[in-house]
Structures are given as C-alpha cells and as structure tokens.
Amino acid sequence: MWPRRMGASKIIRNNVVADFSTTTESLLHLLPSDLQLPVISPIIVTENQETHNDYNIFVSTWNVGGITPSQDLNIDDLLDTHNTSCHIYVIGFQEVVPLNASNVLGPENKKVSTRWNSLIKKTLNKKSRSGQLSSKVTKSNTEGNDLQHDFRCLVSKQMVGLLISVWVRSDVLPFIRNPNVSCVGCGIMGCLGNKGSVSIRFQLHETSFCFVCSHLASGGGEGDERNRNSDANEIFSRTSFPSNKGSSSIRLPRRILDHDRVVVFGDLNYRISLPEKETRSLVDRFDWKKLLEYDQLRTELMDGQFEAWHEGPINFPPTYKYLPNSDEYFVKNQEMKRAPAWCDRIIWSGEELKQILYTRSESKLSDHRPVKAIFSTQVEVSRLACGNFYFSDGFDQISTSLEFVCMNIPLVLTN
C-alpha cells in the first residue's frame, strides 16, 4: 500500500551523500590558485514586490536495460530541448548497468554515469538550440533568452543500476540550498541496491523539493503488485535526510512526504491486471482508457487512502516491453511472459505543483520507452533572498572527475 501524505558500501543506508565529497574544504584544494570566486549579493524583496516566483521543472525516467550509451547518442527528444525551456532538469535512469551479481555486490561503475552526465550536459548546453518555449510552458520568470544561461549539475548519484542527475540553470543555481541525497536498497535480502531508490532533496528559495528515482519489484504474476507496494513502503519509511545543523532557524524536512513538492518516478513496474491476450488486443486497438481501468498503479492511486498522489492523463502507448531496436512489443514465448504495460511512471504530490506535459519519448535503445513530464510551480521567496555560495564561474575549471559534484557550500549571507 502506498503511503498518504502526512504532516556497508553495498548494504544501502540512509543519508548517503552524493558521489563526490560535499564539503567546502575538500573542494578548495582542487580549484586553480588564480581562480577568482564570485560574490553573491543579497536580493532585497521590497514590500511592493511579489513574494513568489514561477519555475518550470522537467522530469524524465528511463530504464536503459544495462546498455551503455554511445558518445554520439542523441537525447534531444528525451530532454525535449527543441520545444521547451525549463529552469531545472531531473533525469532518472534504471539499469544503467546490468543487474548481475558483480554489479550488485561489487564496486560502482562510475564510467557509465559519467557517460550519461556528459550526454546530458552536451544536450542541455547546445548553443544551437532555439531556446523557444513550448506554447504549453509558462513564459513567466524566464528572464528573457535562456541562451544566456548554461546548465550546471547540482548533484548526480548512482546506486548500482539507479542513477539520478539534477541540472539547474546557472541563474537559478544561487537560490538553491541544502541539497542532500538518500539511498534505499530493497532488492536482494531486502537491502541490496538492485531495487530501491535514490532520492534528492533541496530548497529553492523557501520551498522544499524531493525527487525520488525508483526501481520497484518486477514480475507480472498474480499478486506481484504487493511486492511493489512493499518496496514503495520501504522507500518512504527508510528514506531520511539530515536535519539542519547549528543555530539556523530553518527546519529542514527529513522524510519524503514532509517536503512541499514531491515527485516519484522510475520503473515502478506496475502491470495491467488482464490476461495477456486481452491486453495485447486492447493495445492493438489503442484503447488506453479500457486498459487503464486495470492498471495496477492507477488502482492504487484511485484508492481513497492515496488521495495526495496525482498522475497526469496517459495518452501514450505502454512503455514496456519492446523488442530491441524495434517498435514491436515483445512476443510471448514459453520461457518468458511479458505483456505490454505502463511500467515507467511519474507521479507527484504537493500544492502549487501543476503538470503541463506528460508523454513518452521514442528512443529504441532499450526494451523500455522513456517517459517525461514538465511541471510548473510557484515557490516562496524570502524578503531577504540569497543562495548558496557556488563556484559557478569556475565550474568548468574544476577537475573533470568533480564535474558532477553537489556543491553544498554554506551561506555567505545570513539574516
């Protein structure tokens, strides 16, 4: 059962930091000696100014089936860069490495996550892209042509096959504080990372966000959805972020549902509770409405106990399971049974979070199709607004291995 909103290296524990060190001291010695660090001045919000800002947030999920991307893989469609312009991009992957024993029990393969992050950086920062907003995306607070602003990686974290990467437009980055990561493994023996979640939280101005990239239990048999519900409960109960330290008056949320805006996404693996033959027949007729009546996740979300969770209308074909490099669904054989299903989903909770796009992409790299969403939201702005001190101007001068580091630097200015 999904919860409702209430006010050892491979044995995954909570409060896991990002893949790289997040302390000021550990970063300073890596900076060039002649680098001049920028000073961020406070922004004073006067009585007659608005105390809310509008932002667009892009979220996508993709199970890539253990396939390492080529260096020239085109992910323009995945990130929707030709049609939309967002302030924050949150990209989640599942199975970035095959879920075999060596990957589950051995050291993380960081080469794969670096490859994905390089592709994301290249795609988001293409100078040739138009920067035009889709008619569906609000144009407020875009501050003119976003070609003037590049995207920086706030944090990237891998746990076995799970990878989450958060990218922020450079003019928005100073207003993000307290980014943290928490990993929960609920796979083999209930603790290994072949299944589970990697969650990232941060504050944008005075509003808290939590993004939960998940890979839940698989299986299309009767009752297998209970294993997925169990994984979800484990993720919500065991995910924990550090509380604020020192004398700060800011009370940081510790649990997922304590945050103002929450987005859960990933290969949630929920199936369609119909015989395979009937499922395929409805897919052939594009009868999504009838299919969704038997969708297991929709059944969970429609239950009165889960009224806090929302999902946009699904007007696209099931995202799983495809034959490799094909538009054809996997054909049943005697060894494996894989009926089409909407395994890859994005759901959300929280006031002032509005979904303005929910669709899929058509990459044929794996047996899953990617799913993407765009949200618009208002965030509360303090009358004295200042952000974390980031090495923004010197980001590209930092060593490549630290290119995807979460820079959680103390505030320069305080009230």
UniProtKB/TrEMBL annotation:
Q: Which Gene3D superfamilies match?
A: Endonuclease/exonuclease/phosphatase
Instruction: State whether keyword Hydrolase applies.
Output: yes
One Pfam family of this chain? Exo_endo_phos2
Sample GO molecular function, one term: inositol-polyphosphate 5-phosphatase activity
Tell me where in this chain the Inositol polyphosphate-related phosphatase domain is found: 53-383
Q: Does the keyword Hydrolase apply?
A: yes
Where would you find the membrane-spanning parts of this chain?
Answer: none
- Kindly list the biological process annotations in GO that this record carries: phosphatidylinositol dephosphorylation
SMART domains for this protein: IPPc
Which UniProt key words apply to this protein? Hydrolase
The record's similarity note reads: Belongs to the inositol polyphosphate 5-phosphatase family.
Q: What is this protein called?
A: Inositol polyphosphate-related phosphatase domain-containing protein
Q: Which organism is it from?
A: Centaurea solstitialis
